[in-house]
Amino acid sequence: MWEVQYNFALLQQLSASVTSEILASSQVAPNITLPRFEVMGGFTDGMSGIMSSIFIPLLAASKLKEWEAYSVENQGWLEESARLVIDHAHHLRPLKGTHQDHETDAVDFIGVDGNIQGGKIVDIPNKIWVWNEGEKTVLEPVSDDQLLAPFWQSSPAEASTVNVDMMSDSRIAELYNSMRDTNQTVMSSATVIGNLFDWMYASEEKEKKAQPHAFLMEPVYATFSSAESEPIGLIMALTSYRHLFESILPHKADGIYVVLTGSSACGTNLTFLLNGPKATFVGFQDLHEGMDEYEETIPMELYSTISENLCFHDLHIYPAPTFVKSHLTNKPM
């Protein structure tokens, strides 16, 4: 499906931009900070329904203390991101003005007076940490070679989530393994957003986050000639499955069901109802209303390589009974 491929292409482009910056600045992994990431990631956010883009370095636990010191010393990118709204007036917040605009209700850094709200940017957590039953707990590695993935730069920017170990979340770890197994950009199975991304949304938007979302992941390499080597970081993005089906149909083209049936790694089916450009999530199972004789089926992710633990979907398309009725005529052409 073209929308998924477009999202993948955006992450690949952002990953290449990160590699270019690494080469130009001679920074050495994992100690990498990208200037103007709010611009780099923000333009990715503003296209194709991606709600957040993140650069995450990868490091062994033996580098934990070194990374923690580095991150505290280099957290100035947060204030740089906050200033973007003043210094780059044409930069729009993710999805602003689109059908997905309600997804952007996050807290702004900059007040109407042009000053940083509260007078300062909140300091980042100075230790790599994990969520432990909803509470922040300092990470205690089990070995020096344990792979860590501390949340670093993001668009939109947020201080409080910096240095959470993304690999401690089983969904992220499974997606990483699928990416490494297949050596390609990957998208996760449907997930309900929990503490990892809860900071992005105003309280009145929380109920919408019970709908299925997906993590996308792309490796970052230190050079352009090392595609077979180990990545030094990740580009991650967050999107809603619903976004994949928005703005596909024209106005008044109402009553099309799309059902996603997944591989064993996906764990659930999904149903959406398309009424013109608007897509509505119906439920976590196949809930289309008959009309099976009109079914069309296509693969959604179009992966070049499949592994046992990779989630991939078939997309089943059905007209609703009302759609069929509205197109029946006793005067066929």
Low-confidence stretches: 97-108, 110-114
Strand content: 15-25%
Number of domains: 2
CATH architecture of the largest domain: 2-Layer Sandwich
Our Rg estimate from Cα atoms comes to 21 Å
N- and C-termini, Cα separation: 31 Å
Q: Percent helix among the residues?
A: 10-25%
Oligomeric grouping of the chains: single chain
What string, H for helix and E for strand, traces the elements in order? Answer: HHEEHHEEEEHEEEEEEEEH
Please report the first level of CATH classification, the CATH class of the largest domain: Alpha Beta
Structural class: alpha+beta
* Biggest beta sheet attributes: 5 strands, antiparallel
Which of globular, elongated, flat, extended, rod-shaped describes the shape?
elongated
What would you say about this model in short?
The chain contains six helices and 14 strands.
Task: Describe the protein's architecture and organization.
By secondary structure, the chain is α+β, with helices and mostly antiparallel strands. It folds into 2 domains: 2-245, Beta-Lactamase (2-Layer Sandwich); 254-327, no CATH class. The protein has 6 helices and 14 strands. Strand 3 (129-132) and strand 4 form a beta hairpin.
Topology summary:
Layout: H1 2-25, H2 37-45, E1 50-57, E2 59-60, H3 64-73, H4 77-87, E3 129-132, E4 135-138, E5 147-148, E6 153-155, H5 170-182, E7 186-187, E8 213-220, E9 233-240, E10 254-262, E11 270-275, E12 278-283, E13 296-299, E14 313-319, H6 321-327
Antiparallel strand pairs: 1-6, 1-9, 2-5, 3-4, 7-8, 8-9, 10-11, 10-14, 11-12, 13-14
